[in-house]
Amino acid sequence: MEKILINTEFIKLDSLLKFAALVGTGGEAKLVISEGMVKVNGEVCTMRGKKIYPGDRVDFDRFSLEVTKE
User: Fold this and answer.
1) Has this prediction a pTM greater than 0.85?
2) How far from the centroid of its chain's Cα atoms is residue 17's Cα?
């Protein structure tokens, strides 16, 4: 599991995928999220604007991310 460090209260799901370089563009992030390919805390999430807070886990493809705060 890769830890992603943020310095804000939260990060939106589509921005997190771009920030972690799991997708190349916002359009690609929108597509994989809307197709149900992303899980947040073990549940499929289709809301690209979902707020991800420190302690949340995001799974996409073979990658697992845990968001932490500075």
Assistant:
1) yes
2) 5
